Structures are given as C-alpha cells and as structure tokens.
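Title: Prediction job returns without error message
Component: structure pipeline
Severity: low
Priority: P3
Assignee: unassigned

Description:
Job completed but the reporter wants confirmation the result is attached to the right record. Sequence as submitted:
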Amino acid sequence: MVESAPVTVAIVRSRIEAELAVGLLRSQGLRAAFIADDVGGLEPQLQQSGVRVLVAAEDEAAARRILADVDDDGS
C-alpha cells in the first residue's frame, strides 16, 4: 500500500487546540498529526502562523466533516 502525503485540514491557534483536534480525529479512526513551529512547545510565541492539523489524503473528507460538526456545535 502506498502512503499518500498528508494534507492540512485545519490551522488552529495553539498546540493545545491541535492536540484536541488530533485526539478527536484519531478517536474516529483517522490517522492525524499536527505540526507546530514552536521548538517543541518551548517557544509558543513562534506559533504566530498557527498550528497545522494534518491527516492522510484519503481521510481528508471525513476529517473535514468531523471538524465541521464540532464547529457547528459551537465548540
């Protein structure tokens, strides 16, 4: 099986938000991760451009639906 390149499904304000989003996506059986340019959390001020939440390309549509459902619930 050939792995596809990950795609960004959200850009959030902090590492904590990214961890929550990744946890939610993983709990739904999706492969998810995040990238934060903040020196491993030691320099949170470097997150000015946000933290990217990534999933496998084949999981993109499902991930976007899950994240949209959370946004629709006012969370």
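Comment from assignee: result matches the submitted record. The chain is about 35% helix and 25% strand.
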